[in-house]
Protein 1
Amino acid sequence: SQQGEEDPQALSIQEGENATMNCSYKTSINNLQWYRQNSGRGLVHLILIRSNEREKHSGRLRVTLDTSKKSSSLLITASRAADTASYFCATDAGGNMLTFGGGTRLMVKP
Amino acid sequence: DAEITQSPRHKITETGRQVTLACHQTWNHNNMFWYRQDLGHGLRLIHYSYGVQDTNKGEVSDGYSVSRSNTEDLPLTLESAASSQTSVYFCASSPGGRKYFGPGTRLTVT
């Protein structure tokens, strides 16, 4: 079963626009992580936000976490064609094991 | 540079055969994981290990086994391959928190 569910499943935007992806989960967590996967490649870690944090930034990425609503969002600002990929949220409820959502496919058009 | 590798990258096998997928990491991480990725299911945890001689079952462990004889390697064995095990398999290692993923093995069972 999937702990996280991403929304939307697919997103298409123009270069320079912002992209927002949302993730909802079901149980209490220690942390929530976002990963990127380019077609045919492995997953690359983007950012980790702990359960006691509300917002975190890394370059053009901004992640928020609302534990009361069991939800998180990933914002990519000023998107580039190279940002085209699938993005996954993953929750760690303990034991360093991650439970992944189904992902959001982002297409950034030049 | 430290890395995580998987072999083979592609494998075609017949139903009923035993198959072993290799995973090797040079970070000296204690934690290692095997996931499978299927369309519509995201990544699902098969087995994981917290250290040498430690192995644990994940969400979809039936038909799979792992062994951990050293820190660097966590081979995944399909005892008797089934068509339902056609998938892309990802190995990951972690010091805790973020995970480092291998490039994946695409397995086809005919």
Protein 2
Amino acid sequence: AQKITQTQPGMFVQEKEAVTLDCTYDTSDPSYGLFWYKQPSSGEMIFLIYQGSYDQQNATEGRYSLNFQKARKSANLVISASQLGDSAMYFCAMSNTGNQFYFGTGTSLTVIP
Amino acid sequence: NAGVMQNPRHLVRRRGQEARLRCSPMKGHSHVYWYRQLPEEGLKFMVYLQKENIIDESGMPKERFSAEFPKEGPSILRIQQVVRGDSAAYFCASSPVLPPTDTQYFGPGTRLTVL
């Protein structure tokens, strides 16, 4: 069975500091994709970053980077230089050749001024 | 290039009524997915469709729920005889190619409230 685990229900970070949101996954498929989405209080799902299972380099998108450790099956999101607008729910997701996306339960991030 | 569009954004129904949720994928995207998000939870997969075909409906309740993606027009998620437990946010996503090599782009969601 495919599974995504986010163990941090809530996180706090000081503005301008970096924060790491944890995500571990479980799959037996050799080919899969890992994603992070942001869901602000307005409710929409905003795509942040993607990492393919065969990618050698960690993905980066602006202030977002994905710390991909394949052997440990972890795909942590690192947000550098946090901003007040980063306060939101963050969801880790995985897709495989079975067409579905599997989502974790999310981490609520609060950026403190 | 417009993103994924969903309407209505908010829908209120009384128990026993029907709810119809619409989703127009991004231009050029032929894969559509529906997800349900209950309060305080992550998104749960419901169904995956391509034009005129249901590819995977393993996450869809067997009764009262149906989905279609006709040759012309938006994808429709239909919930018959709604109950209070159907109250949730329903998200549609689209992608241009098969997973896992590309992301899914989400619409703004439809928030269904059943009174």
